Amino acid sequence: MRKYMLIFIAACFYYSGLVKLARWWKQRDTKSSQYLIILNYHCATGGDLRRHMLYLRRHYRILHLEAALEELYTPRKIEPYRRGKLTPLVLTFDDGYRDNYTHGFRLACELQIPITIFLIPAYIESGDYFWWGEHKRLIHFTQIKEIILSGKTYHPDLHQERLALSREIDKQLRFASSVSQREAFLETIRKKLAVPSSAVLNPETALSLTWTEIQEMEKSGWVSFGVHTQHHPILAYLTDPTELHQEVEKCREIVEQRLEHPIRAFAYPVGQIQHIGENVLQSVKDAGYQWAMTTQYGFNTPQSDPYLLRRIEVDVSQHWLVMAAEAAGVWGFFSRMRWIPFIRKYFTNAST
Fold it and tell me: Which pLDDT tens digit goes with each residue over 208-264?
């Protein structure tokens, strides 16, 4: 019900002309003529990425992240509105899922649309499962009847306790104060739940790209790369300043060695302000990056802090109408006005 309600709202925005009006306003406003929209995807499968890309290619000027940011921060005379001038937009994919190669790369080449992927070198080299999906994988495959975790007993064969256990595993992984603490907990919980390493729901969304795939994408000219830390901890939770520096710096060194050119862009894991903090921000600056991406909602202008660039989170599973409203800023505007939550509540009550 919720999915169709969101599509209905987005269709109202689109076919009423609000989305078109928002796009036009950004193009004609001389102050807005230097807007940059950065979309934040993760996986490339599980929806209709092709439809997303075709829409965006028609209505925006899609650039590689580096080219778009160079253009944004290069001083230039503000030009008057010209009919047909398109707002620049960047497609970014965080984490480097394998389906970014099997599906995203194929579409980028076919449709000639540049994309930028933020890599996590430790996962590329280890071939391990991404930690943020482990609570779902382990709970899905475990056959044990009882487990004690943090002093509490769970029975995974009972639905509600299964959900509670999944949340507790994710919590301990997410709030770890060091990578070693997180990995030690992962090793322990994998043994307790007795799930074989070969058990996986979908390798394309549980595992990372390989260096061979990355180098092939790089050579195509349609894919550029940034970095996303070495092991993907939530940086604000790390208690050791040395580890923080290593997470920010080591990933860059490895990717630069592999690709044989400088890496200038960084993306904060999770990426809200509470997951960054002053120490993290300073560490990124000290490491020599030119730009850093958050997941804070919004558009970017030449006045935007290059180390706190905003992105609009979208998902390939979203209907293209929802994505279109997101990219134009209409969805965010009405969400902040609390209209969308009000409509959601109305539809929920009407269906009960």
Answer: 999 999 999 999 999 999 999 999 999 999 999 999 999 999 999 999 999 999 999
Superfamily covering domain 34-127+208-339: Glycoside hydrolase/deacetylase (3.20.20.370)
Domain ranges of the chain: 34-127+208-339, 131-193
pTM: 0.91
Q: Which residue has the tokens 């600056």?
A: 285
Residues of the chain falling short of pLDDT 70: 1, 29-33, 77-84, 335-352
Residue 11: strand, helix, or coil:
helix
Query: How many CA atoms lie within 13 Å of 159's alpha carbon, on the beta-carbon side?
Result: 0
Q: Percentages helix, strand, coil for the chain, rounded to the nearest 5? A: 55, 10, 35
Long-range contact set of residues 144-149: C-beta below 8 Å, sequence gap at least 24:
144/192, 144/193, 144/194, 147/192, 147/193, 149/189, 149/192
